[in-house]
Amino acid sequence: MDEMKVIQKTIDMIKYAYLALAQFPKSEKYAMVADIKRCLDQLLELEVEAQKKYYKKTTLQNLDVTLAKIRVYTRVAHELGFLQTKKYELWTAKNVEIGKMIGGWIKSQADKNHRE
């Protein structure tokens, strides 16, 4: 698993997300937008931690949970009309791609642990 690829994909998603979040209503700037940005930051931080740690299991699980939170937030934002359908679909595709990479990372780590 090339951890740098998932980090780069996450950076790309964050750049896209910030553009989409800028179009949310001002009333959500300190509410949902702040929560989503916090999750995005946490996602990136956990990826860096997982890349650097020797024991990665808990960090990778937290990473998976954080990505799930982002998925739920984007769905709620779309359902509330804050996120246009096209932006929602593009963001969701990025989430799915990152999710697959994280899943592969978790699997490769589990395989590595079973060999040791």
Can you give me a brief rundown of this structure?
This protein has 116 residues and is mainly alpha-helical. It has four helices and no strands. α1 runs antiparallel to α4 and α2 runs antiparallel to α3.
N-end to C-end Cα span: 17 Å
Radius of gyration over C-alpha positions, nearest whole angstrom: 15 Å
Task: Tally the helices.
Answer: 4
Structural domains: how many: 1
CATH C-level: Mainly Alpha
Q: Which fold name fills CATH's third level, the topology?
A: de novo design (two linked rop proteins)
CATH architecture, by name, is: Up-down Bundle
Mean pLDDT: 94
Structural class: mainly alpha
If you had to describe this structure to a student in words, what would you say it looks like?
By secondary structure, the chain is mostly helical. The chain has one domain (3-115): de novo design (two linked rop proteins) (Up-down Bundle), CATH 1.20.1440.60. It contains 4 helices and no strands. The radius of gyration is 15 Å and the shape is elongated. The mean pLDDT is 94.
